[in-house]
Amino acid sequence: MTRLGRSAVTFAAALALAVAPLAIPATSAASQAPVSAYLAAQLEAGTADLLPVFVHADDVAAAKQAVSASGLVLVSTWDRIGVAIARGTAAQVENVRTRPGVTYVEADEPIAFTLETSTVATRGEEARATLVDGSGQPLDGRGISVAVIDSGIDGKHPFFRVPAAPSAVRANLKGVCVVTTARNKINDRCFVDVTNLGNDTDTLSAGGHGTHVAGIVAGRDVTLTNGRQLQGSAPGAMLIGLSVGQALSIYGADSALNWVLEHHADPCGSRLNLTLCPPIKVTNNSYGPVGGGQFNENSATVKLQRALAAEGVLTVWAAGNDGGDGSTSLTNPPGQDPTGGIVSVASYFDQNTGTRDGVVSDYSSRGQAGAQSTYPDLSAPGEEIESSCRPYLVICSSGLMPENGPGRKDIGTFNTISGTSMAAPHIAGIVATLLQADPAATPADVEDALVQTAYQYADGAAYETDAARGGVTSFDKGHGLVDVVAAVGRLRAG
């Protein structure tokens, strides 16, 4: 991608849930299941609000039984990981902790987009020009779908279309993960397919973030009215949009991950065959809590991404935009997962020259020096990234350098934004190209190829031996700047 100006916007909002409370007898504190830190704070504060919670159990049947027995109202379930989503009073939440089979209780909480491309610095253009897949086709991500969990995607945008071809956005689903009641029944349907109803979920959420991110993943080759050419990281890949809106919470984001877990093998179902809508092999997640936090292997997010990795789907996380100096970890918690095939991405700035010896973006979240599990895995361009936008979308309008094209009537269709939100989709697209190069590679294989071949640019913290994976790493930039050509070489060498 080509980069110009810079802007930064942060959005965060909680998902509001409500239900009539039920009285529950007091229960013993003995044998209580542990709770997440956010829920513990809510319970400690003695809140009178009705709480949305995720009840983890040995299996989904036990979770549902515990919800029912405690008086909580069941909202939905994530069957594959044994979690029931429910809501109720603090007393009901305390009660469910004592029920048989319950292992953990987690609160919904607000998260935010990690706002703050260069295919030259990553050697992506070189890979596309010089390397081919088993069928002799250039490495551009073809045959792979990437799920973008974000504010939504404007599938009608010219960055996703080429003449006489359908949009790269093959499925576009709008999240409606807000719990409502009607005649005492719960509406828990979470995603509605709007692909054939305009193919635009970003305008519905008044966002812009997701359209910009999706363009970095798989924008097609376009020429702007000023003659400059742009393309995404994987301009042959397909996109599956999962809009969780501009206002984010863990419930909506995890529901999207759960949708991918249940549908990745055939994301368009009977509407399109697998040739036109190939399986999802990677998800992009450019959001997280402000200020980072501790990794929590008991969370639904971690259980979902580990289940995805086991089924061949790699998960990419933006590291966060909280900066830091290494004295404490500020990186996005789920990205700290040591499981192979879960990748945390720091933001690199090539200083608008395409250099591979640029700098770590000052806003890019750092891990805690000496605690390597908190470090980002690697870096990708995230500063001053130009991609698809619309002037009427909130986040797009924050960009400082709107551009026009490719058509004469396409006004303000591209703009420049910075953040680890922009670094992560570079990696998501690159993963698609690596899996095109070696379809048999596992998520762990792909992550190994990425981190072990990363270019060690000198800016920032000193590199140190990676005790877990070998090679070297650093608390601010991980193993270094992604190198597509080298990663393909390592993957193919086995």
Quick one: biggest sheet?
9 strands, mixed
Net shape = globular
Output the structural class. alpha/beta
Poorly predicted parts: 1-29, 180-187
- Highest-level CATH class of the largest domain: Alpha Beta
Cα Rg: 22 Å
Give me the CATH fold name of the largest domain.
Answer: Rossmann fold
| Number of E-state strands | 24
- CATH superfamily caption of the largest domain: Peptidase S8/S53 domain
* Share of residues in strands: 15-25%
How many distinct helices? 11
Return the average pLDDT rounded to an integer: 88
Give the termini distance in whole angstroms: 30 Å
CATH architecture of the largest domain: 3-Layer(aba) Sandwich
Total tally of structural domains: 2
Fraction in helix: 10-25%
What would your notes on this structure say?
The chain has helices at residues 37-44, 60-70, 90-96, 124-130, 202-205, 209-218, 250-263, 300-310, 420-437, 443-452, 484-493; strands at 51-57, 73-78, 83-88, 102-107, 110-113, 145-150, 169-175, 180-182, 185-187, 191-193, 222-223, 229-230, 238-243, 248-249, 280-285, 287-288, 314-318, 342-349, 359-360, 378-381, 385-388, 414-417, 464-465, 472-473. The relative contact order is 0.16. The two termini are 30 Å apart. Strand 23 and strand 24 form a beta hairpin. The longest helix has 18 residues, at 420-437. The protein is of the alpha/beta class. The strands form 7 sheets. Strands 6, 7, 10, 13, 15, 17, 18, 19 and 20 form a 9-stranded mixed beta sheet that branches. It has a 4-stranded antiparallel beta sheet with strand order 2-3-1-4, with helices on both faces. The protein has a 3-stranded antiparallel beta sheet with strand order 14-5-16. It has 2 domains: 37-107, Alpha-Beta Plaits; 112-493, Rossmann fold, CATH 3.40.50.200.
